[in-house]
Design a protein that fits this description.
Blueprint (H helix, E strand, L loop, with lengths): L2 E4 L3 H13 L7 E4 L3 H10 L4 E2 L3 H7 L2 E4 L3 H11 L8 E4 L6 H5 L5 E6 L10 E6 L5 H12 L3 E4 L5 H29 L4 H20 L5 H8 L5 H13 L2 H28 L2
Parallel strand pairs: 1-2, 1-4, 2-3, 4-5, 5-6, 7-8
Antiparallel strand pairs: 6-7
């Protein structure tokens, strides 16, 4: 089975590298292109057996499953340009959240799915979010899940939780890396620890905490209970966090959803324009 990638930016490249290095896809079965072809050529330098082609049409012609890794507003014109090549035996997978599988199915006659990856998939960990269109055959679904199982825990989601799921899985690493960096910077500012020492300790702490949660020995609340002795040092720190964080994360989800709905409105104008013609 040949797998195509239209777009080799940050997320497209992460998927390609992860699938290859995990053994999910053999490099010679991959066909890819990018608007700036040099970006695709850079990947071929690392994996000489992958195939770089000149344009999106060549990717579709040579592939059974095609990942669409472009910006939301670029998807509609791209698929209109490709629709004659997208036969029912092929499947496209969009990796962008504002476009639903229903919208994709209204535009093309091929099978449709959406897969929202996470940067954590680069370490063959974390979650990838999957939504299948009604057009997507069971055999194709199995093939998609087999690929993603090599690099993540694939979880099927419905449209109504797409944004919040993506906030947690896909945006979460950026949010929490920012918080961790603030944690490190404050440790350096308030004590005599060096930045290198603080980064090492904080990084090892977060990796260890992840492994501890993975064992399911502790949940998030019980982990706090085990570390936080009443009246102790950790308890004092937790009190500060409780007082300072407030509704910070509520506001995070509010603004991400505001931007999401703006993106949905822009994308919907493209699809509605065709529908109303």
């Amino acid at each position: 089975m040949n797998v195509g990638f239209i777009g080799t930016g940050n997320m497209g490249r992460i998927l390609i590298e992860s699938f290859i290095e995990s053994g999910a896809i053999k490099p010679s079965f991959i066909y890819m292109t990018n608007r700036t072809i040099a970006k695709a050529a850079d990947i071929k330098e690392l994996y000489p057996h992958v195939n770089v082609v000149d344009n999106a049409k060549d990717v579709v012609k040579r592939s059974d499953i095609v990942f669409i890794c472009v910006k939301p507003l670029d998807i509609h014109p791209l698929l209109k340009n490709l629709e004659n090549l997208l036969s029912p035996n092929k499947c496209i997978i969009s990796i962008t959240s504002p476009i639903s599988v229903d919208q994709l199915e209204s535009l093309v006659k091929c099978q449709v799915a959406r897969a929202i990856p996470s940067i954590t998939n680069r370490a063959f960990s974390g979650v990838s979010l999957i939504t299948y269109g009604d057009s997507c055959h069971k055999e194709t679904q199995c093939a998609i899940e087999e690929m993603f199982e090599q690099i993540s825990n694939p979880v099927q989601i419905e449209d109504n939780v797409t944004r919040v799921s993506s906030d947690i899985v896909s945006c979460g690493p950026a949010f929490f890396s920012y918080l961790l960096q603030q944690f490190v910077d404050s440790a350096v500012a308030e004590t005599e620890i060096t930045k290198d020492q603080a980064v090492l300790l904080a990084s090892e702490m977060i990796v260890g905490m992840g492994k501890l949660l993975e064992t399911e020995i502790y949940t998030l609340p019980t982990l706090q209970e085990k570390v936080c002795v009443k009246g102790g040092v950790t308890g004092k720190g937790i009190n500060v966090l409780e007082n300072e964080i407030g509704d910070m994360f509520n506001k995070v989800f509010q603004v991400t959803h505001e931007k999401y709905y703006e993106d949905i409105e822009e994308v919907s104008e493209q699809f509605n324009h065709i529908t109303n013609k």
